[in-house]
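WARN  no MSA supplied for this record, continuing single-sequence
INFO  ligand: iron/sulfur cluster
INFO  echoing inputs
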Amino acid sequence: MVCPHLDYRDSDGEQAFDHERPYCEIQAAFVSPMEADLCRDRHDFHHETHCAVYQRHHAADQLVPGLNLEDGD
Ligand code: SF4
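INFO  complex generated
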């Protein structure tokens, strides 16, 4: 299963790319093709157990249900 936070973008808002690049919505950053293998659960990776970014994001959800740490208010 592909990580639900993985996206593919063909620009960074200012510069257009020749092809789409993998983008992590949690980090708000592009990830390397090697990292994207993890995001896509290739080569025996599983994003839920092997990605620290995913684990931190979802652990925060479990500490205080309903708390959104990305909300700047
Ligand atoms: S880096 Fe982690 S959280 Fe981000 S898209 Fe990849 S697997 Fe998901």
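The helical segments are 33-39, 47-50, 52-63.
INFO  checksum written, moving to next record
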